[in-house]
Design brief:
Blueprint (H helix, E strand, L loop, with lengths): L2 E5 L3 H13 L3 E5 L2 H10 L5 E4 L8 H10 L7 E6 L4 H10 L3 E4 L4 H10 L4
Helix pairs in contact: 2-3
């Protein structure tokens, strides 16, 4: 079973992401911020994908993404940013930092499925 890490400071958003990811056949793990997510990535043997919010306390999504891409992992996970940041410079910044895809909130199950298919994890 493929593993996905859901990173968002909103419990409601994580619950929606969990429902979507579970319906797509993923085993889910959750984190409230980037620092917690980085610890999870380091502890897990494999993460296939990450749905990642940008604006979070402690460590934001962009800082997590940059740290993740520096991690000496056997295989880097696909990262889909899921955020309210919708200005082109921010999207370019995230993609340049290593995001594979970008979804603007609010999003639907169909959009998540399409993006995960697009990055090759479905």
């Amino acid at each position: 079973m493929k593993k996905i890490l859901l990173v968002d400071d909103s419990r409601a958003v994580r619950a929606f992401m969990r429902k979507v990811a579970s319906s797509l056949g993923f085993e889910t793990t959750e984190a409230e911020n980037g620092e917690q997510a980085l610890g999870i990535v380091r502890a897990m043997k494999r993460v296939d994908a990450v749905l990642l919010d940008w604006n979070m306390p402690v460590m934001d999504g962009l800082s997590f993404l940059k740290a993740l891409r520096r991690e000496p992992l056997e295989t880097q996970p696909a990262v889909v940013m899921c955020t309210t940041e919708n200005e082109m410079p921010r999207i370019v910044e995230a993609m340049s930092a290593g995001a594979n895809e970008y979804i603007m909130k609010p999003f639907t199950e169909e959009i998540v499925r399409e993006k995960l298919e697009g990055v090759g994890v479905l």
